[in-house]
Amino acid sequence: MAVIEPLDLDTTASLVDPGKAPKRSSRGRLIWIRLRSTPRFWIGVTVVALMIIWAIIGLWFTHWSPTDQDLINSRTGPSGSHWFGTDDIGQDIYAETVVGLRKSLAIGLIAGPLSTLLSAFVGSFAGYVGGKADSVISWFINLLLVVPAFFLLVLISPLLKDKAWVALIFFIAAFTWMVMAQVIRAQTKSLRDRDFVKAARFMGVGTFTILRRHIVPNVASLLIIDATLGVVYAIIAETSLSYFGFGIQPPQVSLGTLLADGTSAATTRPWVFLFPAGVLILLLFAVSLIGDALRDAVDPTSGATRG
Amino acid sequence: MVNAPLLEVRNLSVDFPQNNSTVHAVRDISYVINRGEFLGIVGESGSGKSVSSMAVMGLLPSSAQVSGDILFRGESLLDMDDRKLSRLRGNEIAMIFQDPLSALTPVYTVGNQIAEGLLLHDKALSKQAAATRAVELLRIVGIPAPERRVKAFPHEFSGGMRQRVMIAIAIANNPNLIIADEPTTALDVTIQAQILEVLQKAKEITGAAVVLITHDLGVVAGNADRIAVMYAGKLVETGSVDDVFNRPHMPYTLGLLRSVPNLITAGKTRLVPLEGRPPSLDALPPGCPFEQRCPIAIDACRETEPPLLSIGSSHEAACLRAPEIAAGQLQAADVFPRPEPIPAADQAKVEGRTVLEVTDVKRYFTLTRGAVFKREIGKVKAVDGISFDIHEGEVLGLVGESGCGKSTTILEILELTSPQDGSIKIDGVDVSTLTKDQRLAKRKDIQVVFQDPMAALDPRLTIEDIVAEPLTVHNVSKADQRRRVGELLDTVGLEASMGSRYPHEFSGGQRQRIGIARALATEPKLLILDEPVSALDVSIQAGVINLLEDLKERLGLSYLFVAHDLAVVRQIADKVAVMYLGRIVESGRVADVFARPHHPYTQALMSAVPIPDPDAERSRKRILLDGDLPSPTDEISGCRFHSRCPLFKVLDPSLQQRCLTEDPQLRVIDTSSAACHHAELNTLQVT
């Protein structure tokens, strides 16, 4: 509803456009309005929310724990007792999938945003400070980009074997931030020349305050998208590493180790492979939907909305 | 139909349907253009002046809903199919756009682009003949060495030259109507004067009628025969230039004319602000759209929108009270009274200390090539040894065209570090001696207001946070910050309750006030104002200029006022320094320099500024400069102005020699100082 304000002509230009209702940060609202009307977003959010809840409470519904061995029923398909069947040594696939999902979710949800945080910090700093520091940081980013991260992970993985799975989170984050850092750096370079940043600098506002107050909020939409899609990358990275035996080590389970265990029997006893794989695909799909919807809401001109 | 007027627009309306509202961009306008006539359409941004002309050209987007009729020589343009319309466009009707860079294709030579228009409309023409004609056209629009230039690409041309090419393309087929949409807005004043001259010449050669769309009253005053004033999509006043300028009858025109700074009256009287902003075009009130800003609105104005009423021969105004104005019962001075200056009792005492002293500051940028092994390929002397000082309570206007080094100068000052060469003293303290903490403390004393008020305010912060930002640096408590923000908003004429809103909710003028409030937060001694009003609509400018004048008087501030608009500088400044290619070429008290400019560049600059007064415009003698600003990378020996200097051309060759070899320094001539060897011989007249 339009709020018409009383006009006061003799004092000064003290009237805000009478045709417009006062609104809070229009850009944020606009993004939210666009997002709200995207079914993809709601599907993604619902699926992810359900999976998180399932990962937390999923074990309540079964009396099997992932380490229990039901040797009598080993290698059996889905049944009333073992919903997803059992593997070679009689472990319950349902319980293992729930626990594996927990790990994959935890790694994804922490490593994705962590990588974004790192790229925001490094990218905005390099872009804002410029000069020598920028050259050195750019050089370092480019170096990391040309080094095949997976290969490096394989090399370093023996060191990780003794550490807890938490180390893997930092490891994944450390190797996925570079591209986004470059994007943020480029954005910051153009923001740096905007008058409001110059104004802040000439007021004597410190570098890190400017980064926090002016630069990062103005690239926030990019960061949110990146953090969401980063979750997908992190889960894929974790599962593929674990699949090849370089990530999560037994007795710990993640979706990746489950897949690795299941591949050999994928054709003969498909349940060992299909259930963890299905959960993984569903999770990645749902998070991607959210990221995709976010990107379209922030930048309506991006590819997906065409046609 | 021989007797039909060249173009007749009848009850034209253009609507743009939006998601849940309709923007009425043009509402029921009618006008007539006769053969060979020069019509100026004046209006502020969003008044519908461009949209109405786009409708004539048939260039509106397909979402636009057009009603009414447009007759070109009696034939309806709206009923015409696209093929027929295309044949008319470029042949009978030509258009010149605001931005000549985007209007020319970068991948073809300008010659090809001119020839293209010729060949399209005349199939019998041979390629060779078209090329010859292209050269001829370039000569007509004043491009030097056209035989060579015809093969150049648009990027090799400056803005002014590109606009000349656009005019050449427009007149290529001897059109009957030329529509020029803000053709000079993106250009510097001396270039603007050249382009307007070329436009007049083009009109004489082709005998075409010209429609000049502009926001600048000065531009139409000297060129147009008739003008039409648009406001909120409606024609509110039309008539001959003399009628409208000398006897305006619509309060909007009245207020606009009184609010524009004018080289003749500037500095002698205060400006009259025209407050408020036009209603948004998707939610128009039922009555007169100007009613909210109109000081003489009566109840009837709120109910019906007044039609154009005839007041004398071919002079019409859309105001219910126009007859009263015509009869002299309402005088302009009563409708928009001049605001009183700040009474002496409220004025701050100033002691006249030197606040800023800039001595021989230089800033060169080296151009390098190569990524690993950088080698120097040239030097840009952005600022090449300039000196000036500003005393307490004083305003120095720094004037010059784009590329003269104004912006580099203020950035050098604002950095508060030692310049490449020379010295900068603030409040008597040399900035190169400051420690980090002292520098931070010094920033309190010197603040800046930028040109574009939208870009200068972070869109993601509230007004309160924006205005309080300088205070956060200096350890002011949150409660004190809030109190101070309230005071500051009040000082600049905004309500303290607006603090929780975001910048996009404010109009341009209000945003600039917010920018000023932020600059005042730390109680600075010196404000650096970088073109503070040039991004604002004309009717808003006066309010901001008056505010700056009042603040100066009340708080005893000093300003370094950077501008390209001489009339604004004349209005507000005490002293003026004219810059050309990194040097100050003339400086002195405003009254002296404007009354008797000594440097030929100052004279040309002043004569290029259009005056919104048709009588004064007609009696003026212009000094037109040739060509464009030389590239800053060029090494120029002797006087850097000699390539464009009108005085140089009339000098004896023995005297010219000195200009070519010796770099002139500022020297005192009469009461001001100028950097010209032969200023005493200067008999060029400026009015």
Looking at this protein, list some descriptive labels.
heterodimer; A: 307 residues; mainly alpha; MetI-like fold; 12 helices; elongated; disordered N terminus; disordered C terminus; B: 687 residues; alpha/beta; Rossmann fold; 4 domains; 8-stranded mixed beta sheet; 24 strands; globular
Account of the 3D structure:
The complex is a heterodimer of chains A (307) and B (687). By secondary structure, chain A is mostly helical. Chain A has helices at 26-36, 39-57, 93-129, 131-146, 149-160, 166-174, 178-192, 195-203, 207-218, 220-243, 255-263, 271-298. Chain A is elongated. In chain B, the strands form 4 sheets. In chain B, strands 6-7-8-3-9-10-12-11 form an 8-stranded mixed beta sheet, sandwiched between helices. An 8-stranded mixed beta sheet of chain B has the order 18-19-20-15-21-22-24-23, sandwiched between helices. In chain B, strands 2-1-4-5 form a 4-stranded antiparallel beta sheet, covered by helices on one side. In chain B, 34% of the residues lie in helices and 22% in strands. By secondary structure, chain B is an alpha/beta fold. The A-B interface holds A 2, 7, 9, 11-20, 22-27, 194-196, 198-200, 202-206, 209, 213-214, 217-218, 220 and B 273, 275-277, 279-280, 282-283, 292-293, 295, 414, 439-440, 443, 446-448, 450-452, 455-461, 469-470, 472-474, 493-495, 498, 501-502, 504-507, 509-510, 513, 515, 518, 522, 540, 543, 547.
Layout of helices and strands, plus pairs?
The complex is a heterodimer of chains A (307) and B (687).
Chain A: H1 26-36, H2 39-57, H3 93-129, H4 131-146, H5 149-160, H6 166-174, H7 178-192, H8 195-203, H9 207-218, H10 220-243, H11 255-263, H12 271-298
Chain B: E1 7-17, E2 22-33, E3 38-42, H1 49-57, E4 65-72, E5 75-76, H2 82-88, E6 93-96, H3 100-103, H4 110-121, H5 127-140, H6 146-149, H7 159-171, E7 177-181, H8 189-206, E8 209-214, H9 217-223, E9 226-231, E10 234-240, H10 241-246, H11 251-259, H12 299-303, E11 309-310, E12 316-317, H13 322-326, H14 332-335, E13 354-369, E14 375-391, E15 395-399, H15 406-415, E16 421-426, E17 429-430, H16 436-442, E18 446-449, H17 463-473, H18 478-491, H19 508-520, E19 526-530, H20 538-555, E20 558-563, H21 566-572, E21 575-580, E22 583-589, H22 590-595, H23 600-608, H24 614-619, H25 646-650, H26 653-661, E23 667-669, E24 672-674
Parallel strand pairs in B: 3-8, 3-9, 6-7, 7-8, 15-20, 15-21, 18-19, 19-20
Antiparallel strand pairs in B: 1-2, 1-4, 4-5, 9-10, 10-12, 11-12, 13-14, 13-16, 16-17, 21-22, 22-24, 23-24
